[in-house]
Amino acid sequence: MPPSFPRRLLARVLPPGDRAVILDDLDEEFVTKGAAWYWLQAISSLPGAVRLRWRASRRPRGTARERGRSLAEAARDARFAFRTWRRQPVFAVAAITTQALAIGVSAAIATVAYCILVKPLPYADPARLVHLFEGVRGGQFSYADYQHLRRASRTLTGIAGYSGGSRTLMRPGQTPERIPMAEVSDGFFDTLGVRPAMGRTFSADDVRREAAPVAILAHGAWVRRFAADPGILGTSISLNGQPTTVVGILPESFEFPLRGLAEVWLPLRPSRAQEARGYFHWMDVIARLAPSATREQAGAELAVVAALRQSDDPQWHAEVRYRAVPLQDLVVGPVRPALFALLGAVALLLGTATASITGLLLTRSAARAREFAVRAAIGAGTGRLVRQLITESVLLALSGGILGGVLARWLLQAGVAAIPRQARASLPSVDRLSTAPELVLMTLGLSLVTGVAFGLLPALRWSRHDLSQGLRAGRIATGAPHRRAQGILVAGEVALGFILLSGTGLLARSVHHLLQVSPGFDTHGLLTMRVSLPDGRYGDPASVLSFYDRVTERLAAVPGVSAVAANDQLPLQGRGDTGVVDVEGQAGRRDRETSIRTVSANYFEVLGLDLEAGRPLAATDRAGSPRAVVVNRTFAERVLEGGNPIGRRIRFVFTGADPWEIVGVVGDEQLEELDRGRTPIVYFAMTQGPSHAFSFVIRTTRPDEVAAAARQAVAAVDPQLPLYSVATMDRILESSSAVFFRRVMLTLLGLFAVSAVILASIAVYSLLAQSVSERTREIGVRLALGASRGQVVRLMVASGIAPTTAGLAAGLGASLMTGRALGSLLFGVGPSDPLVLLGAVAAVGSVALAACLVPSLRATRIDPVTTLRQD
User: How many Cβ atoms are within 10 Å of 36's Cβ, its own excluded?
Assistant: First the structure.
């Protein structure tokens, strides 16, 4: 019996009217030629079978036997293509490898771009989901704002709030762990249209302050931490030492990138202070457009709601603005420029590869001129030969596409694994990229498009010639028009390679400039780690300070530790808590929002911030002593507007009516990304009001040993407290999004550029090698007439430099537009940086020159006597 799989596959593809006849013919060949031949015949018949199916669905014509003959011709074309590849393995390997690399990279990047930029978020009617921003206070809402919006809005439904943080998970017999969590209001999951895989979501009763603690587990946390035990529903887990009942499990497909790391979801229960303080902005808000509402109507209504809020609370909302942004735009906005840049680079690389394979096919078709002439002489028409060329190019593309699909999946798996977990969790569908069905569609689509593209030019060239003239076809195909077509392709490849290389140079200089930006302190030798103290066991400031002092004493005794300090928010990780400051003696301004830090007395010394005026915070700055703060240079210049800052007094609404005296000014530390500006900061003494969550900052030469010792030190003081977010400051700097995304872009663009330049150099070499082969008689005559070998080299190099120069000129103009397209990723360098452009010209020109020299030097070894004897 014939093999069942190819027979079933063909039976499904073939139209019913042709199926029996064609399968019977194949079965006869199985009897005479065996299973291996049957497999080859069946697979090579698939393209023709698809064409028959399409024709049958449109307009059935001819008999089944005639359609069978058409399918057999397609199979013969495919088998002939395979035989020619076997006779020319170097060509086949070069073309298929080039196609596989181009398709693999292109399909991988295209899949990423589609899944992140285009694919809708996995919610019900995601296009109607919006994220709301309060336009003055950094985008977040106070609880009073949130409640006011829920009451007043008619164009928005399902208005729900959320916030983030972490909790300490304690399980019997296991070390306590700090896990990320999210707090959400009632209706949050209903707004997204998400239903739990097990259990229920939160109700209005769950968000009441006096309600029993409940939680919903993310699917991943349920699997990793509780072995996917369905019995966990209804049982209690310990979060921050508080028994909490698990009421639901989220589905595996659920993701909320704005809180992507959250492992446990809790009901949002504001404290009394959060409810009362209209100036305290701490929660984010999402909503859904009402069924009949548009974004424009929602925007107009938000303006009215903001005006009402201004009249209700002019003290804190005199300039309030509300705006709605599509949730999809908010999620993908930070990476959109990078992905568009990558798509552009992929298009350039794919164009280079297509041009390279087209050049190979043109050269190969020219070498087959005698074959085509013979086939034409025995009756093959031009259309039949063109169909043969198109079949060969499509099969070539599909062969490379299969390998490219495997490469694309591997690239996606490796790429996703290399992305930091936090960045990966903030992007939609990233963890499932390597298994996304879009990957197969992208691979197949790109393979077919490129197959037709690089097979079209050779086919068109042959379709214009009268092949019945026999061997004259060989001279026609290899004449000046053929060389011009080859030269245009080479120039295009050089231009594309130059564009990619210049973009890589711009990004390289941007990363270099970015890493030269000083964060204001020495990051080397700084180890950081975070701890959060539960309010229940550390309810007063004295207990917090006692914990800090005991752990610090133990850490200071660890070998390799030179100093230990603490603050409530590390640099390079965001502005953190902010407040509007009032300065005595200055008229009130609404733009005096400043970052707030709580630090230990020796924080400036450990970090290495210079004291520019006054004194630092001291151990004597304790509760009951005069209120003292230190400010940074930017605060003194921007908020205090110059003059002597020492002795000036400031107030924050959350600190009460009593003022705080500025006792010192220190240098700036970078709070946000390195590509952001400096921020005004006010430093409070930890001893005058400690935070329950703070970071240790340790100056050490042995970070790994000290990290282990720090865990032991904390466990010795309080075994129920975990240390988390342990990292060196250098690691924090390198993993920041400003540096990380630019480095990723630099790596990818660099690989694309190197690949494109290599392909361009191969094209230059092939063009010149073919030219030497075609001009062997001319070179021999020149040598016989007395031309020196140097003159021959210059002659041949000139013929290769001409398309290279044209390509460089075209690439130079296009690279200026490329630089502008990369604008948001550039830092400290212009889009037309002359150093980058000159370097790219020198690099591409040098590679092209080297590619020209090899065949040119070979031309000097031509023996004129032998050449002339052949004539």
Answer: 9
Q: Whole-structure pTM over 0.85, yes or no?
A: no
State the Cα–Cα distance between residues 477 and 363, nearest whole angstrom: 10
Question: Using CB atoms within 10 A of its CB, is residue 366 exposed (0-12), middle (13-18) or buried (19+)?
Answer: buried
**Percentage of residues in the chain with pLDDT exceeding 90?**
31
Of 599, 566, 544, 556, which is closest to residue 718 (Cα–Cα)?
A: 544
User: What does the pLDDT read at residue 466?
Assistant: 52
Q: Give the SS3 label for residue 254.
A: coil
For 599, which DSSP code? E
Rg (CA), the chain: 35
Cα 103 to Cα 56, 170, 262, 784: the distances in Å are 32, 48, 36, 48
Per-residue pLDDT reduced to its tens digit, 641-658: 878 899 999 988 877 778
Query: Which has the closest alpha carbon to 668: 680, 656, 658, 659?
Result: 680
Place of tokens 């075209």: 810
Measured CA to CA in angstroms, residue 359 lies from 254, 267, 403, 754, 770 at distances of 48, 64, 21, 19, 11
306, 602, 686 from 564: Cα distances, Å:
47, 8, 14
Name the least confident of 21-35, 115-129, 671-685.
Answer: 21-35
Q: Could you tell me if 466 and 159 are in contact, meaning their C-beta atoms sit under 8 angstroms apart?
A: no
Three-state DSSP class for residue 847:
helix
Instruction: Please report which helix (H) or strand (E) contains residue 65, including its range.
Output: helix 64-87
DSSP letter string over 471-497?
THHHHHHTSHHHHHHHHHHHHHHHHHH
On the 0-12 / 13-18 / 19+ scale of CB atoms within 10 A, 442 is: buried
Banded model confidence at residue 788, pLDDT cuts 50, 70, 90: confident
Tokens representing residue 140 in the block: 């977040």
d(CA 781, CA 353): 37
- What does the pLDDT look like over 682-697, one tens digit per residue? 999 999 988 889 999 9
Residue 218: phi, psi to the nearest 5?
Answer: -65, 150
Which pLDDT tens digit goes with each residue over 558-610?
A: 999 999 999 999 998 888 888 888 888 876 555 578 899 999 999 999 999 99
Rounded to an integer, what distance in angstroms lies between the CA atom of residue 192 and that of residue 178? Answer: 27
Mean pLDDT of 102-112: 88
Q: 346 pLDDT exceeds 80?
A: yes
